[in-house]
Amino acid sequence: MCGIVGYIGKNNCLPLLIEGLKRLEYRGYDSSGISCLHQGSISTFKKTGKIVNMEATVPKSLSATIGIGHTRWATHGGVTDENSHPHLSQNNKFAIVHNGIIENYKTLKTHLENDGYTFRSSTDSEVIAHLLEKNYTGDFEKSFHKTLSLLEGTYGIVALSLDNPDYLMIGRKGSPLVLGIGNDEMFVASDVSAFLGHTKQVVYLEDNEISKLSINNFKTTDFTLEEKKKEIATIDWDISELNKNNFEHYLLKEIYEQPESIRRAFAGRFMESIGTAKLGGLNMTPQELINIDRVGVIACGTSYHAGLVGSYVLEELARVPTAVHIASEIRYKNPIVDKNSVYFAVSQSGETIDTFLAMKEFQRKGSRVLGICNVVGSTIPRESNGGVYVHSGPEISVASTKAFTSQLTVFYLFSLLMGRMKDVSQQKGIELIQALKMIPEQIEEILKSTEKIQSIAKEYSKLDNFLFLGRGISYPVALEGALKLKEISYRHAEGIPAGEIKHGPIALIDKNTPVIFIVPKDHLQEKMISNIEEVKARGGRLLAICTPNNQRVKELVHDYIEIPECDPLLSPLLSIIPLQLLAYYVAKELGCDIDQPRNLAKSVTVE
Ligand code: F6R
């Protein structure tokens, strides 16, 4: 969603702000803008569309050492130049960039209008700039504090003041902000990738914190002005991970990274000789783990699908009932919380507002919530009661791929750990570990069929209304395959439990309906074959994901893509790969904006 970057230092901020905004492009946006202090005034450039549109309006000769920038993903007010950030106060004394939503902006706007302030945009954010000016009595810090105390809602705000060129003011409540500490230069951004090429030293702001950022130092207080001691952390990944390398799109790169990202997710977490796993971050004693009698998962989108796979694995290995909840639903449902339950908040970004707020609701009811997240230092892991990082590395493409398979890997590890405390024997545990360790190579094997998948995708891109069918543990894979396809190719797709097809969806089938069957080698294979027969009799265009020896399936369908045989519980790690590639190549065939699909944002930080 919206992205923020700010700079104060010895260098020209304009190329740094533009570079930072480009690094944030992956979050999804529809307009961008920058403001800087230049020759006694605030110069502002903003434009709808890609950052290059805005960049083209910035004079090459312009130079400034303090500035702020923003990529906007419209919520309040249409996609127009005026609604883009930064927003300026009435007399152009203050400029602000804002992520989040100011819920009481209408009331504030009415008061400001009554006081003679004129609004140039239809956003909620503009009130902040006017309030800064209205509350200013010569002390920017004070006016910033006063302004924030009037705001209801969520925000990450960076403000620039014409009369105070030595510092930026920054405030956070519900929308992430991180400071970058350099030499004679400081950064602030909604995500470290904006400045990672310049410094790896960072300070994460917490909710209800305000920072004053000067060229060589920063001071952080809470809203009562009490100073907070902040730790400087070091980012342990590199800017090169943010590049596409030789891939045409980040999505393809990230699909190809999965053998490595899965290895990273399980690295150092097996205790192979006794067939179990160790997950230090859970902050739970063995007794507490044994006492878990229910597990709940809270998540959205792809992370929700990972949770669904996790529920099959946990119930199978650990025999612990596991319920998976869509975060935006459960948080308004007055959830019933059991004393001996543990909840997992699963999120690639660690910032998804629905997942975060659902987590808070569970915690309020006294529950322990553990995070399964990718972005280190993000809000969910910091506010959870413990958890596990999946260590996929930065996922830039909006559609999630490698984070999904890493989340699954963590569910396998946790299920193994729990299972070994309950029903699973040492031998079975060892076998599972060995099978998991083979997965990266098996994925490499699947990646060798990319050309075949590409030519299948060429044919299927001519069709619309895809059905993805799976049973048991392959049902969430069907959901995820369908989600990938619709997100990046804009083709309509539905994931359906294959047994349900007769109860309605079979009415959709005609000769132009592509139906994709996920048929790993497991105890439901025969049932899937019956479903294939049913659909074939009605004339669908059939594609199967199946194992090499499954001659019967191969003979029934028009096209097939092979995945290696593996332990049936692990099959989602393999069967999702061809579906990710299929979505990619269909989207490519259709000329879609693969890494930044229309209307989508990488981290959904507003409800
Ligand atoms: C799918 C996708 C979204 C996210 C969802 C949750 O490709 O990217 O469905 O999975 O918005 O995001 P996180 O995992 O960051 O909480």
Verbal overview:
By secondary structure, the chain is of the alpha/beta class. The chain folds into 3 domains: 239 residues, 4-Layer Sandwich (Glutamine Phosphoribosylpyrophosphate, subunit 1, domain 1), CATH 3.60.20.10; 203 residues, Glucose-6-phosphate isomerase like protein, domain 1 (Rossmann fold, 3-Layer(aba) Sandwich), CATH 3.40.50.10490; 151 residues, 3-Layer(aba) Sandwich (Rossmann fold), CATH 3.40.50.10490. It is built from 19 helices and 26 strands. The chain starts with a strand and ends in an 18-residue tail after the last helix. It binds fructose -6-phosphate. Fructose -6-phosphate binds next to α9 and α16. Fructose -6-phosphate (F6R) binds next to α9 and α16.
Give the secondary structure arrangement, pairings included.
Blueprint: E1 3-9, H1 13-23, E2 31-38, E3 41-48, H2 51-55, E4 66-72, E5 87-88, E6 94-102, H3 105-114, H4 126-134, H5 140-150, E7 153-161, E8 164-173, E9 178-181, E10 185-189, E11 201-204, E12 209-214, E13 218-222, E14 233-234, H6 250-256, H7 258-266, E15 270-271, E16 276-277, H8 286-290, E17 294-299, H9 301-318, E18 322-326, H10 327-330, E19 341-347, H11 353-364, E20 368-373, H12 379-383, E21 387-389, H13 402-421, H14 426-447, H15 450-460, E22 466-470, H16 474-489, E23 493-497, E24 514-519, H17 525-537, E25 541-546, H18 551-556, E26 559-562, H19 571-589
Parallel strand pairs: 17-18, 17-19, 19-20, 20-21, 22-23, 22-24, 24-25, 25-26
Antiparallel strand pairs: 1-4, 1-10, 2-3, 2-4, 5-6, 6-7, 7-8, 8-12, 9-10, 9-11, 11-14, 12-13, 15-16
The protein binds fructose -6-phosphate.
